[in-house]
């Protein structure tokens, strides 16, 4: 018997994503992530670098381990929970550094390209095309060959990878806004280009920029972990979720938690950030906000 597609399934999924309960859970997890990232050093139960070879590879408490190490220990006896908490600090620091830089650089260049057009637009969009054609991992490898691994390298790579998305978005919207009545009215009273761009056009772009920045947070979390996993991110003697996965893969057959725990952390944070980004998009866009769920 042929199944009939439910025409309201998509609406019900959207309602679940926008529901107050989903939003409350999402905000709670994000708040926990932020608090752990900011106060990780005070929250962590143990020194994440403390070695205890006698207690190495202890499983989590729910798999026969001890509550002294709720999420087990690694192959050097270091507490997995403490390392997970400190890893959140690196992820949060990467977000705080990368997103504002990529947003400001990309938005300013996109605004200039959309407003002035001509050779300004051609040069900037050529840089955008060049960035999109060059994989960020090549930049990471190049920086790794010049400098030692560090958070600075990660920030440079991720800003390079993300600024073009903001530039393309802002340029496209600026092209439409500069022909609007309020811009023409500002011209008639003698307002200059700089005043019109900063006082009239840029405020109209804030919603779109905020939405894109929010949605890119998950990209930063995943990319930072990926670069650290490959050894071209932060230094291997530091702590990040990607490094935890990289160091745990060699003993995954006997210590599954060393890879699973940070992997789940990356998935959960990325998921809730994307859900929050979808909610922000619906909230800030009047057309989406008024759609019947």
Mean pLDDT: 85
Alpha-carbon distance between the two ends: 30 Å
Uncertain parts: 1-13
Count the beta strands: 0
Shape: elongated
Compute the CA-based radius of gyration: 23 Å
Give helix and strand order, one letter per element, not per position.
HHHHHHHHHHH
Strand content: under 5%
Oligomer: single chain
Number of helices: 11
* Helical residue percent band: over 70%
Please identify the structural class as seen in this structure.
Answer: mainly alpha
Major sheet, described briefly? none
Account of the 3D structure:
The protein has 293 residues and is an all-alpha fold. It is built from 11 helices and no strands. It has helices at 9-18, 20-43, 80-116, 118-133, 136-146, 151-177, 181-188, 193-230, 241-248, 257-284, 286-289. Helix 3 runs antiparallel to helix 8 and helix 5 (136-146) runs antiparallel to helix 6.
């Amino acid at each position: 018997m042929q199944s009939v597609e439910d025409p309201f399934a998509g609406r019900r999924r959207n309602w679940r994503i926008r529901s107050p309960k989903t939003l409350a859970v999402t905000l709670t997890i994000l708040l926990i992530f932020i608090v752990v990232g900011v106060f990780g050093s005070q929250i962590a139960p143990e020194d994440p670098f403390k070695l205890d070879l006698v207690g190495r590879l202890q499983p989590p408490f729910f798999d026969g381990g001890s509550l002294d190490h709720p999420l087990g220990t690694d192959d050097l006896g270091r507490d997995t929970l403490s390392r997970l908490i400190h890893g959140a600090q690196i992820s949060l620091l990467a977000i705080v550094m990368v997103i504002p830089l990529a947003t400001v650089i990309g938005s300013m260049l996109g605004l200039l390209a959309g407003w002035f057009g001509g050779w300004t637009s051609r040069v900037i969009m050529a840089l955008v095309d060049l960035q999109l054609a060059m994989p960020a991992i090549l930049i990471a490898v190049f920086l790794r060959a010049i400098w030692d691994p560090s958070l600075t390298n990660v920030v440079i790579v991720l800003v390079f990878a993300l600024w073009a998305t903001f530039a393309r978005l802002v340029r496209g919207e600026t092209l439409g806004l500069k022909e609007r009545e309020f811009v023409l009215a500002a011209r008639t009273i003698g307002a200059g280009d700089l005043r019109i761009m900063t006082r009239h056009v840029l405020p109209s772009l804030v919603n779109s920029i905020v939405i894109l920045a929010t949605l890119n947070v998950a990209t930063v979390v995943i990319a930072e972990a990926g670069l650290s996993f490959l050894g071209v991110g932060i230094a291997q003697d530091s702590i990040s979720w990607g490094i935890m996965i990289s160091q745990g893969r060699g003993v995954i057959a006997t210590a599954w938690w060393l890879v699973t725990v940070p992997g789940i952390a990356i998935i959960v944070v990325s998921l809730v950030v994307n859900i929050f980004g979808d909610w922000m998009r619906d909230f800030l866009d009047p057309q989406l906000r008024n759609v019947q769920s």
